[in-house]
């Protein structure tokens, strides 16, 4: 018998980076810079690069398609299908079911106002869930259910967190420790909460490198903790500084011509926009994301936010 040789060797386990925009409007220069960094960090480490549309919240008609077009125009490419969170309800329900089976989920009947006004537990960080519904009696739960009926919503489902804090390693920030409270897994409207969706989806997409804006740095420990509960690997994190306007506030659409399409309408090219982003990273003269990949070294990442100054 002749031994069978496979036509091609099995692909190596390469891992993946990702970019996961929320399609609430066009990406601005700060988002585009983060996307380029995510792509560069993935590609230079030989990883795949995945895209995911995080559309569980406010969505603007047509924005998802425009975002993909804009990323492609800068020279980004991605592997496999774009994952769309609104199509992933079964996967989130399955993860939730697993946590429920392990007794790690409880119903929360609190309104937002009640949480804000509740006296916080001793030593709890500001804004942390005060634990009101963690250990209710059957009668209190019945009262809660009646209240939800009157409010015409479902109880939120929260994680019965087994730790107070958790630590992750960030490529730029080093060891980051943040509080972990009983955060929401499923919202009162029945939709998966961001923290659950992101962990389930990163695992499903084989993501082992998360590059994103540093506004999410303190969310990483709770997501990493949740990953360990779900038996998913904790990714490597790289949180990058945000873009600011000249007044020091987070860059936003209202700051003027801040999207790729705005810049094109002012006579710039996609290459000019990449050039601007390259300048902010200390690599002048870039025209495509590939130029940034070839010239930029992560050690060059400025630790301060990018203050965007635009003509016109
Ligand atoms: N969808 C989030 C955003 O656009 C990013 C979430 C993440 O990268 O984990 O801000």
Automatic annotation (TrEMBL):
InterPro entries: aa-tRNA-synth_I_CS (IPR001412), Glu-Q_tRNA(Asp)_Synthase (IPR022380), Glu/Gln-tRNA-synth (IPR000924), Glu/Gln-tRNA-synth_Ib_cat-dom (IPR020058), GluQ/Sye (IPR049940), Rossmann-like_a/b/a_fold (IPR014729)
Protein keywords: Aminoacyl-tRNA synthetase, ATP-binding, Ligase, Metal-binding, Nucleotide-binding, Protein biosynthesis, Zinc
Keyword presence, Chaperone: no
UniProt xrefs under Pfam families: tRNA-synt_1c
Described function: Catalyzes the tRNA-independent activation of glutamate in presence of ATP and the subsequent transfer of glutamate onto a tRNA(Asp). Glutamate is transferred on the 2-amino-5-(4,5-dihydroxy-2-cyclopenten-1-yl) moiety of the queuosine in the wobble position of the QUC anticodon.
NCBIfam families: PRK05710.1-3, PRK05710.1-4, queuosine_YadB
Protein name stated in the entry: Glutamyl-Q tRNA(Asp) synthetase
Organism: Brachybacterium equifaecis
């Amino acid at each position: 018998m002749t031994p069978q040789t496979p036509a091609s060797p099995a692909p190596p386990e390469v891992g993946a980076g990702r970019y996961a925009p929320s399609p609430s409007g066009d990406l601005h220069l700060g988002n585009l810079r983060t996307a380029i960094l995510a792509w560069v960090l993935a590609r230079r480490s030989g990883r795949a690069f995945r895209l995911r549309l995080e559309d569980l919240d406010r969505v603007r008609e047509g924005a998802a398609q425009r975002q993909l077009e804009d990323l492609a125009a800068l020279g980004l490419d991605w592997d496999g299908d774009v994952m769309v969170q609104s199509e992933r309800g079964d996967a989130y329900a399955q993860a939730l079911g697993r946590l429920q089976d392990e007794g790690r989920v409880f119903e929360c009947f609190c309104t937002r106002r009640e949480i804000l006004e509740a006296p916080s537990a001793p030593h709890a960080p500001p804004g942390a869930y005060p634990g009101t519904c963690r250990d209710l009696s059957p009668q209190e739960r019945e009262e809660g259910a009646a209240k939800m009926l009157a409010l015409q919503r479902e109880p939120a489902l929260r994680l019965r967190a087994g730790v107070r804090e958790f630590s992750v390693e960030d490529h730029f920030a080093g060891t980051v420790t943040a509080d972990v409270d009983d955060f929401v897994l499923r919202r009162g409207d029945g939709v998966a909460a961001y923290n659950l969706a992101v962990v389930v989806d990163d695992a499903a997409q084989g993501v082992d490198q998360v590059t994103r804006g540093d506004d999410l740095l303190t969310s990483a420990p709770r997501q990493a903790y949740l990953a360990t509960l779900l038996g998913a690997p904790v990714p490597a994190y790289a949180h990058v500084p945000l873009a600011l306007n000249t007044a020091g506030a987070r860059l936003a659409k209202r700051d003027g011509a801040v999207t790729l399409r705005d810049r094109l309408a002012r006579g710039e090219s996609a290459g000019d926009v990449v050039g601007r982003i390259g300048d902010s990273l200390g690599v002048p003269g870039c025209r495509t994301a590939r130029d940034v990949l070839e010239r930029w070294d992560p050690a060059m990442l400025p630790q301060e936010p990018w203050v965007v100054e635009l003509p016109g």
